[in-house]
Amino acid sequence: QVQLVESGGGLVQPGGSLRLSCAASGSISSIYDMGWYRQAPGKQREWVASTVSGGLSSYADSVKGRFTISRDNAKNTLYLQMNSLKVEDTGVYYCNGGTHWGKGALVTVSS
């Protein structure tokens, strides 16, 4: 059973940047599709970005051009670089790989 642990969340001002990491307890090289989801207060969890083995990535329209997803199979880690953050990006960010989910990292964008 692979466990996923997110880190890198925190409080940032609008326009700022954060990088989230998702460290896996085992190899992620066999997990074809990995992604990030988020849940804002009072809202349902939504998909943010995904990447597959081989490097192809996709993004929700709301983050396209601002967020970059990447994975390092050698380090068993998934990343999400978030730039030009907006207040509406606030939420708990979850890492997903196959049937595995992390417990989430809180990102708060506020002045």
Written description of the protein model:
The protein has no helices and 11 strands. The strands form 2 sheets. Strands 2, 4, 5, 6, 9, 10 and 11 form a 7-stranded mixed beta sheet that branches. A 4-stranded antiparallel beta sheet has the order 1-3-8-7, with no helix packed on it. Strand 5 (46-52) and strand 6 form a beta hairpin. The N and C termini lie far apart (40 Å). The chain is globular, with a radius of gyration of 13 Å. It is mainly beta.
Structure summarized in a few sentences:
This protein has 111 residues and is an all-beta fold.
Give keywords:
7-stranded mixed beta sheet, mainly beta, globular, 4-stranded antiparallel beta sheet
Q: Roughly how many Å is the radius of gyration? A: 13 Å
How would you sum up the major sheet? 7 strands, mixed
Total helical segments: 0
User: Which overall shape is indicated by the principal axes computed on the Cα atoms?
Assistant: globular
Overall pLDDT metric: 96
How big a fraction of the residues is strand? Answer: over 45%
What is the N-to-C succession of helices and strands? EEEEEEEEEEE
How many E-type strands?
Answer: 11
Q: What structural class do the secondary elements suggest?
A: mainly beta
Distance N terminus to C terminus? 40 Å
Q: Uncertain regions: pLDDT < 50 for 5+ in a row?
A: none
Helix content: under 10%
